[in-house]
Every structure is written in structure tokens, then in C-alpha cells.
TrEMBL record, chains A, B:
PANTHER family named in the record: NEGATIVE TRANSCRIPTION REGULATOR PADR (PTHR43252:SF6), TRANSCRIPTIONAL REGULATOR YQJI (PTHR43252)
Source organism of this protein record: Actinokineospora globicatena
Pfam families: PadR (PF03551), Vir_act_alpha_C (PF10400)
Transcription regulator PadR N-terminal domain mapped to chain residues: 3-70
Name of the featured protein: DNA-binding transcriptional regulator, PadR family
Residue intervals of the Transcription regulator PadR C-terminal domain: 82-161
DNA sequence: CCGGGCATGTAACGCGTTACATGATTCG
DNA sequence: CGAATCATGTAACGCGTTACATGCCCGG
């Protein structure tokens, strides 16, 4: 779907498809390098893409356009979530408050970098003003909302982690003198 | 890491590990069913988990605890993004504004459901108040921030999509009378 | 003329999912 | 006693990533 979509914008070589996916769709999609050419070969065999002659860029056929619209209309299957950062924070007691704070600082920095990248992309996209621009802005906005949410979350969580533990060990020890049971038996 | 982490909370059967991952870590982690038992077998062979006897629940060994902390301390490798919704919206012109609006409505509804689910989880977690509670709240908060961001984005994008096109075809046609070039050649 | 980017592949390997298979226990 | 749930596995298959391999072309 991504390859057909890239070729729907303009004919291009496989190499350019890869760069387009990385540079344009990069903030929400990725294709591994060794995936592009087998995909293009399969698409060519099914006559969804064509090369005018050998060494010409790939271009979409009429059937390819139809197929792209079919694929886009299919419901997006949700991918099972796998967030390593959250897993580490959830078991943060094993890791210690210091390491958790570092994870949150890293996440915050990454969100800020992402916002900067997206701002740069936005400047480029906003200057184009083609028929695809509104849609590009929608996906861009999603990235920005997500990054801002991550930023706010990281700051809020850093504050929470500092506030509830003055020393590093406070979270590891029981801070309720009268309570000896730890939640281990639930 | 997820399996060791689950067992670090309490000894349990493989079946219970699966349910714990689904129910407790579900909003940021998942393990396929057929993954649990091979993993437990491998962990048992490496003496990171043990069963008191056959048909007893698995429990973490001392080495298993050490290994868990090692794994948690490893840097989280980022997964290449693959967001099917964004891909569809990016090529939204092929799909048509109506279908895009439906995608956004679905995304909005899903974000609202997610917020409701997380609110229910929050009620349970907040009532516990164990040593792991602050960390559980951090991951929970991340889910809430993300869901609220998705909700706001969907509403904002729906408004943008309605505002810029009074009829369904407006986005497909050129709305700038004097401009014939389309961005296809970039 | 030589190094780096353009361009096109391939092959191995691993991981994870899906589906299948089986028995025990519990509850109505 | 039958159905549903608990519980433990296995095997096939596919997908995708990583790494490797090769040649062209252009600019310094």
C-alpha cells in the first residue's frame, strides 16, 4: 500500500520510493530496505506497476490505481502494542527511581526533537498547497498532538516521581509505617 | 521481560501470566498466546524461573530477578512505526473525503472507548496503593495523554476536513482557478 | 581516477502469530 | 454429565529485517 501510494504521487525508481517513504511518511510509516524491490517485482508481475523500459522509473498502471484504492478502503488492522518504555516504567520499582527519571528525561528530549522535526516538515508542507496538502497536514497534526502529549506526560511524570520520593530509596521501602504487607500476593 | 516482570509480582501459572499481560499491561504491551509457554520453558531451562513441582505455578528464581533488572536496564529499542490509519489518511485524496471522515470518526470513538477503559483501570489502581502503584499510574497516565491527544486530533481534523470542502468533490478538483499545475512532479 | 551516492537486488535467519491438539477442573 | 473455562503445549507458516553482493554514474 505504501509503495503504490508513493508511486501514485509520481513515477520514481525503487531507490526514490524508499527515500520518499523514509522522508515523507517517516513519522508514521517505515519500510525496510530489502522489502522495496521484492514488493516492486511482485507488483510488476501483477501488472499494478510498470516500467516503460528497463532502467526507467516505476509507474502506476490503471489497475494499480484501482488496487491502491481497494487497499486504502480496507479497514486498518490494529497492531498489537509493544511499548518498551512503558514496560520498563511499569516495573520501575525493580529499576529504581533514578533510572526511571532518566527514561522520562530521554522521552521528553525525544518528544522535543520530534516536535522540532515536525515543525520543519510543516513549514515545507504548508508552502506546497496542492490537492494532497490537507491530508498531509492531518497526519502531521497527529504527530504533533502525539508528541505534545508525550512531552506533557513526561514532565508530569517526572514531577510525580520527584514529589513522592525525596530520596532514591523512598519508593523501594514502605512509606506507611503501620503497613507491613506488600502487594505481592494479589 | 514481560513474563519475568509478571512473575516478579507474584508466582502464577502460564495461563495467568497471559491474562496478567492482557489485562494489566494490555494498553501498552501484548504477547501472543503461543509465545508464553515456549518462553517459560526457555526461562526454566536457564533457571530464571522454577516450579516447586510439576503443576505448581511458576516463580522467579534469584537469578531471574537479576536477569529481569538487567533486561529492564537495557535501552528500549525503538520499533519502526507502522500506522495504517495515517497511511490511509495521507493518501486520503484517493479515498475520498467521506471515507476519511469516517476514519476520523472511528478514531475518535476508539479514543473515547480507550479513555473509558483507562478510567476504569485508574479506579482500580488508585485503590491499591502498593509500592508499584506510582509506576502503574505513570504508564496509565501515558495512555490517557495519548488517548486525549488522539481525541483532540480527530475532532480538529474533522473540522478541518469539513471546513475546507463544502462538497465531497471539492478536494478532488482544483479550487484555485488560475493554477493548472499539480504537485505531481516534485 | 576514485570515492560516494544512486540503483537493484538476494539470501538467511529469527521472531511471532495462527491454528491446531489435548487433558483437567469446575460449575450448573 | 455436559459445557465452559483453566491449563499446557506444538507446528507451520509468513513476514520482515539484516546483512551481503554488485554495478553504474557523477563530481572532485
Amino acid at each position: 500500500m505504501a509503495v503504490l501510494g508513493a508511486l501514485s504521487v509520481a513515477p520514481m525508481t525503487g531507490y526514490a520510493v524508499r527515500e520518499a517513504i523514509r522522508d515523507v511518511l517517516g513519522h508514521f510509516w517505515s519500510e525496510s530496505f530489502g522489502q522495496i524491490y521484492p514488493t516492486l517485482a511482485a507488483l510488476e508481475e501483477r501488472e499494478l506497476v510498470r516500467r516503460a523500459d528497463r532502467a526507467a522509473p516505476y509507474e502506476l498502471t490503471a489497475r494499480g490505481e484501482v488496487r491502491l484504492r481497494e487497499l486504502l478502503a480496507e479497514p486498518a488492522q490494529r497492531v498489537p502494542p509493544r511499548n518498551g518504555l512503558m514496560l520498563r516504567l511499569f516495573f520501575g520499582r525493580q529499576l529504581g527511581p533514578d533510572a526511571c527519571r532518566q527514561l522520562l528525561l530521554d522521552a521528553k528530549a525525544e518528544a522535543e526533537e520530534q516536535l522540532a522535526r515536525l515543525a520543519a516538515v510543516r513549514a515545507v508542507v504548508a508552502a506546497e498547497d496542492g490537492p494532497d496538502t490537507p491530508y498531509a497536514l492531518i497526519t502531521l497534526s497527529a504527530g504533533e498532538h502525539t508528541a505534545r502529549a508525550a512531552l506533557a506526560w513526561a514532565e508530569e511524570s517526572l514531577a510525580a516521581l520527584l514529589g513522592s520520593s525525596e530520596s532514591d530509596a523512598a519508593l523501594s521501602r514502605a512509606d506507611r509505617p503501620g503497613a507491613a504487607q506488600s502487594g505481592e500476593e494479589s
